[in-house]
Request: fold
Amino acid sequence: MGLLRRRPPAAAVAAAPSADALVAARALVVRFGRVEALRGLDLDVRRGELFALIGPDGAGKTTLFRTIAGVQRPSAGRVLTGGVHTMGMVPQRFALYEDLSIEENLRLRARLYGVPDAVARARWTDLLARVGLDRFTARLAGALSGGMKQKLSLVSALITEPELLLLDEPTTGVDPVSRREFWLLLNQLHHDGLTILVSTPYMDEAEYATRIGFLDRGRLGALGTREEILAAYSRPLVEVRSSNRLAIRERLAHLAEVDDVSLFGTRLHVRGREGTAAALEVVVERALDGVVGPGEVEPLQPTLEDVFVLAHEATVGD
Reply:
């Protein structure tokens, strides 16, 4: 029994947006020639939440962000953003002027959006201090590191004090320290009341979110809070600890009771087709008798990565 059930066709479902939805997508389709980047997607982003969208490359995340921002026109369906008066966006790639300084980029952004100079200066002074860029206002944007560029992009997006902040994989390629600092700031902004929709390939970043969604092949699969998503995982799991992981993986892959064997760092996660983790533990221990020692096979609670591996498999061939 899988985690996900196939949804009815989008045309058959026309649920009204929730009362607290700041953004609502309904039966959203975006096509590029014969390719459907988004396939009947339904999604509400509620006011005041931090929503994390997880998905592999080519899942449709950037297309969704561009459609919400009004840059991409839907092929079918609709996106409702009637409650949003101002929106900020941090794209995957640095989009500010590299031959302008930090301050010049922010001043230009403020003037383009009609923010008075004195108000804009007060805002960017506070924001640059919060992200640790206040000492570099005269530095050219092109001379910044990857993490500093993303922080500048975030400050630029916040100059207009948006009601909705869109961030498309903002920490990809950023060093771990800057990535952590970036997410701590997003968490502060969320607790200040800002609505945030962010895509990320990192499962640990999704832990910060109030709700999580898995987008794959243009469809939205698992959706809910972290606790709801983990609770919906219906397969038994055991963990195997061994230095001989590749040989063990090959041996377990042939068991009828085993559905998947995945490498997780120095350990193996073994997923059963049905039943309980305790029953799967017995099967795995019997198959590995003499190969692993006592206590090296144990029942395991699922992680978000386990959930999304299964969710991805549910979309293959869809």
